[in-house]
Amino acid sequence: xxxxxxxxxxxxxxxxxxxxxxxxxxxxxxxxxxxxxxxxxxxxxxxxxxxxxxxxxxxxxxxxxxxxxxxxxxxxxxxxxxxxxxxxxxxxxxxxxxxxxxxxxxxxxxxxxxxxxxxxxxxxxxxxxxxxxxxxxxxxxxxxxxxxxxxxxxxxxxxxxxxxxxxxxxxxxxxxxxxxxxxxxxxxxxxxxxxxxxxxxxxxxxxxxxxxxxxxxxxxxxxxxxxxxxxxxxxxxxxxxxxxxxxxxxxxxxxxxxxxxxxxxxxxxxxxxxxxxxxxxxxxxxxxxxxxxxxxxxxxxxxxxxxxxxxxxxxxxxxxxxxxxxxxxxxxxxxxxxxxxxxxxxxxxxxxxxxxxxxxxxxxxxxxxxxxxxxxxxxxxxxxxxxxxxxxxxxxxxxxxxxxxxxxxxxxxxxxxxxxxxxxxxxxxxxxxxxxxxxxxxxxxxxxxxxxxxxxxxxxxxxxxxxxxxxxxxxxxxxxxxxxxxxxxx
Length: 490
Prior knowledge:
Number of strands: 15
Radius of gyration: 23 Å
Strand order of the largest sheet: 11-12-10-9-8-7-6-5-13
Number of helices: 17
Distance between the termini: 42 Å
């Protein structure tokens, strides 16, 4: 899609607005095709911000203008975004007939805005909901969800010490690749053969990371082992990893110790016992859907029966909390199929249920058929609404939320839990409450200042073979030097 901007507004922000109406669109300044085009102008007159947006799409053109008056409570950058967003929303709706439920709210972390309203501006929940409806044109349903989640998060965050942190450990290996997956995970026999060598280097990384945390005087609150699928490791490999974590931190003092066991076909009694005995308090066993035909279509190499078997083993193991992931909007997974999956999962009473909306990432196999997946009439919205209503009726509360671009119907991902079972790592990570120290290939350390005003990301090598090629640990040592410099200067 062609974009022309006249005035002081970030091009990336305009692109995110385009994606609300034209999901999966590509942008190029060299594009000579004027049949799909957005022209955005921004003017500043006497403190007011005026934006005019003209959108041309499939033979239709609409021009809309919005003026955002001066306000001492809203900085200029935000007023520009609001003016452009509201003009774009009006023009986009006129051309496509689409009315985004999240209005002009873009970005991954919508609850950060809600927390700001509740904490800094001391708004009541009712006032915060009205604010998002009026300023961001969010529907009442979504505004209520957002503020309810922020209220739960606020209680958790308020009890978290300033000098705290979390640790993420990456196991970027899977037994097979799902069609919607874009994570750095490896499935071929040749790459899976790297696991033993990878663990040796990873354990050294873990040891040095926890030593640095002690050096900085920080307290580890949560440890999260993700992937990939960590339970791709065999029993001896998994025990080696869990023992290494126990050797470097007091697991009993953690608020939460999570290991993803997302693929039911990787779960065994022995592995669950290793996790339980190693102090793991939370695991994920993810069906994504309980429709056998859809499982095959999305490349999940497990059956519905295998999910139930793995879940029962997890319950019997005594691990305190079990999360299950579902995906709304999967191809050929209609409303009836999704609702039956949701009902069946609720009957199991897991401590957590996370409902994702299908997101089409460029690196995923599904990207090849994104035009079909974005077709109007997708039932994702109906499925997401059902998940939130049925979870509420079953006694679950929404406790964290995030959004991604190129998600079906521009919807959200929400974590639900039984009261008292909030996934703490998810909240700390999503709301950038404190630093997340990352170990392993594809992992990203996020240094967060105590006030949350300064954030620096430090990237590890993306792929396992790159990670292993760092024979003198120069990349890892650079990571530690960057972290030390960050804390020295904050």
